Amino acid sequence: MNVETPRPSGTGPLRGIRVLEMGQLIAGPFCGQLLGDLGAEVIKIEDPENGDPMRQWGQATVKGSSLWWSVLARNKKSVTLNLRTPEGQAAAATLAESADIVVENFRPGSLEKWGLSHEELSKNNPGLIMLRVSGFGQTGPYSAQAGYGAIGEAMGGLRYVVGDPSTPPSRVGVSIGDSLAALFGTVGVLAALQERHNSGLGQVVDSAIYESVLGMMESLVPEWAEDGIQRERSGSTLPKIAPSNVYPTADGQWLIIAANQDTVFRRLAAAMGNPRLADGPEYSTHTARGERQAELDELVAEFSLQFTADDLVELLNENSVPVGKIFRVEDMLSDPQYKARRSVIEVDSTDYGTVTMQNAFPRLSRTDTTVRWAGPELGQDTEAVLTQAGYDRGALTDLRDKGVIR
């Protein structure tokens, strides 16, 4: 695909919204991905030399391009600009004049140093909304520190409670801190868009990674502050929530069984052939089951080991007990639910031919989310976007000669 190839328009609810993405790695760009999936036009600014480092991240590459990049940069246009040059800063400011949203996740103060702060950009575009994603937020004594997702996960309380109690604090197997900051940032952007209908004005959305993690930590804070209870690592369970765990099967698999609600546990007891288990004081209430979590898990495990995974899933589904296999990707690709909803799709790509990836979520009944193309080649939309912004061929040649664009 070259710069002359027309891009398919989005059909989602954000069709007509223009986003200027100036971040890199995950926290800012994941927000750009979400907005693009929702139909926005996302113009991603990349350094002309190497582009976003995410082009090389991940465990698998094709022709030197990361498969992770194909997902994170989908539905985006790639424009190269060296933001550390006056010419690049001027071009970015010009693009911001027609943007609805700017997304950035540089260290706080960077945009101010480049003359690209919200205060400056909004002089020519009062309705501009700027999402600023950072480790610690734009204010406070830590704001100027480097704040990667891992640090935010630790500071927000997640790392301490993840893992087995016999091991050091663990991490979730994906970049959850960055992704949560992008999700909270996206919610803030959508709220700011709605508010703009009333005021006509934009504003800054300040999404800190540690606060985004903290926002997901349930009752962790009041449990300690009001009752002195520190939640600890608990492996595959949640304390006092029983039975809700992974249980072994006769064919060496593990199933999730979640029967901690009173009515559901009664149905599980019936499926186990022991309906009276739900009648006695030891297990009849949520609180009682929580107090006897370990012994109840042993009973359920003894039951689950009598069946193969498929047979146990069938039995528990017949009894309306929530149960599920622990999916790997190969399970997803063959699963009928995934197929029926097209949860995984194939997307055309110049680098990969086609690439299989997760679809766009959530689903909307009338203006649905879509994946229009995979992550673009570096700078492939530079000329088209800057020409639309008023740069003629001579100006583009000058920028190229100076190394401002690629």
UniProtKB/TrEMBL annotation:
Pfam families: CoA_transf_3. It is an enzyme of class 2 (transferase). SUPFAM superfamilies: CoA-transferase family III (CaiB/BaiF). Keywords: Transferase. Gene3D superfamilies: Crotonobetainyl-coa:carnitine coa-transferase, domain 1 (3.40.50.10540), formyl-coa transferase, domain 3 (3.30.1540.10). Its EC number is 2.8.3.16. It comes from the Bacteria. Signal peptide: none annotated. One of its GO terms (molecular function) is formyl-CoA transferase activity. InterPro entries: CoA-transferase_III_domain, CoA-Trfase_fam_III, CoA-Trfase_III_dom3_sf, CoA-Trfase_III_dom_1_sf. This is Formyl-CoA transferase. It comes from Brevibacterium marinum.
